[in-house]
Structure formats: C-alpha cells, structure tokens
Amino acid sequence: MAQESPDTSHFGFREVPLGDKQGMVDDVFRSVSHRYDLMNDVMSAGVHRAWKAAMIAKLNPPRTEAPFRLLDLAGGTGDIAFRAAEAAGSAFAAVVCDINAHMLEVGRERAAAKHLDDRVSFVEGNAEQLSFADKSFDACTIAFGIRNVPRIDAALSEIHRVLKPGGRFLCLEFSHVDTPGLDTLYELYSFNIIPELGRMVTGDAESYRYLVESIRQFPRPSAFAEMMHRAGLRRATWDVMSGGIVALHSGWRL
Ligand SMILES: C[S@@+](CC[C@H](N)C(=O)[O-])C[C@H]1O[C@@H](n2cnc3c(N)ncnc32)[C@H](O)[C@@H]1O
Fold first, then answer.
1. d(Cα 226, Cα 51) in Å, to the nearest integer?
2. Cα-to-centroid distance, 181 and ligand 1 (Å)
3. pLDDT of 124-167, one tens digit each?
C-alpha cells in the first residue's frame, strides 16, 4: 500500500488532499449507478455472485423467527442486503447505508421489484460518522465499499460502536493476487480490459480506471486485520478467494 500523510489520501494512483477524496468517489458512483449492477456481472463474468454468496454463507443469518438486524454499509444498490434477506427468517431486517443518493435510488427500485422493501430500508449516510445508536446491529457487512472510504479507521470505529456485543463484522474487498502467472493476467485484464468494458457498458472508462487503481492501494489482508483490531474488532480472520482477487474478513465485537 502506498504511503499517505495524515492529510492526504489516494484516489486511485493519485495522492489527493484527504478532504477531496469523498467528492471524487461520489462522482464515480453517481456516474455509474444506472449500470452498476450490469457492469459487476460483465467485468467479473458473474463471479461476484459467488463471492457475495460466500459472504452470506459466513453471515449465516437466522432462518428462525429470531429478530436479526443487519447494517449493510456502503451497500449501494442493495445486493448484499437482498441476498441476506432471502437467506434469513421473517424477523430479519436490513438497513442499507450509503453516501450516494443515486446508488440508493437504484437500490430502492430493486427492493420494490423484489418485494423486499418491507425488510430492507435505505439510509443516506457516511460510514465515517454513522447516525445509528450504539450497539444497535447484530451484524455489519461491507462489500467492495471500504476501500472507497477516505478515513477507513474512522469507519471501522463506527462499525464497532454500532455493533451489539457478540455482533459480527464481515468485509468483502478486492485484495492482492500473488500467484505467478495469474498476477500478470489479472494485471493485464484490470488495466486494459476493465476500463474499456466500463466505457462500453456505462460510458465511463475513467471511473473504472479509478476502481482498478484503488484496489492496488488497499492494504493486504494481514494489514487490514490489524486495522480491525485497532478499532476494537476481535478474532479477525480472513479467507482469500479466486487466487487472492478478493478477501473476506471477519471480526467480532466482544
Ligand atoms: C463498489 S460499490 C459497492 C456496493 C455494494 N456493496 C455491492 O457490493 O455491490 C461502493 C459503494 O461505497 C459507497 N461509499 C463510498 N464512500 C462511502 C462512505 N464514506 N460512506 C458510505 N458509503 C460510501 C459508494 O457510494 C458505493 O455505493
């Protein structure tokens, strides 16, 4: 991960003032929101569905009538919350919290189409400063969101604050491919093909160039587990999938 001073952050490969990053990230997701879900399928050849299924399997929401409240942070168009709701019992409720109103709007439409709008609600908010009460969620998920947040430490502290004792944190994020051969192919695909696919599907190559570059700036799994520990999240473990393309971290508020 590239070094940052306390006042700077990375927007892709560019070092930018910390205070500027969020606005730049918001522009990316405003630009691609209308085609975001389609582009996920296109650029991962559908494999993001398997990664998300692994996250839901680990979350293992109760299938009974036991109440269970999930916070899906940086939840965008609702993919994780919908999958959790479909796997859970009738007393399950999810709050999708995201900073981008455009992504949330797509999510609300999808929830209505899936008849999940009674169990999945959408709230605009910044992961660095959540409006939810202390100890109010049984679990918190964040999928492909944390690397976009300028102050990751602040977001992890907030996650710890809103989890109930015994509550679980799960983070799915792109990681680092170290397998010889696969790393070269992945590099070529990421930097040459994904921005072009972005141009064809969303009309915006630059946003997908940022998304690819931001993956390279994100900490390695052991370093991210350290960050979780510093925020108070315990028993941090992780699984890597698809040769290291993604990592699924788990931690607990004890
Ligand atoms: C790649 S999308 C992931 C969406 C969804 N979780 C999924 O897996 O499909 C990243 C999301 O992070 C959101 N985001 C970025 N910065 C955020 C912040 N500070 N607080 C909350 N959400 C944020 C973006 O608006 C965007 O919807």
1. 23
2. 31
3. 999 999 999 999 999 999 999 999 999 999 999 999 999 999 99
